[in-house]
Amino acid sequence: xxxxxxxxxxxxxxxxxxxxxxxxxxxxxxxxxxxxxxxxxxxxxxxxxxxxxxxxxxxxxxxxxxxxxxxxxxxxxxxxxxxxxxxxxxxxxxxxxxxxxxxxxxxxxxxxxx
Length: 114
Fold this sequence. Notes:
mainly alpha; Non-ribosomal Peptide Synthetase Peptidyl Carrier Protein, Chain A
């Protein structure tokens, strides 16, 4: 019998890039995410490479990270909705959410906790 490639812990987000079916994995295991999860998501969307691991909670995003432009904001929103099965309403989204990695992480976790 083939062993599952999914981790035994709730650390599922770290394998999503290697999974053909990561969206269904994410939706089945929705819980709060941590900094590493967000670093991986941003790396996946923006192709940050080694720079993704350097992102800290106080790292600026919008206006500071060249790859994080208006199209990246749309990509992040779309990815969050698809990965976590959440709906982000237009009136919930403003520039303050994307000021820093920490502000984005707080927003995501507040939506996941709903």
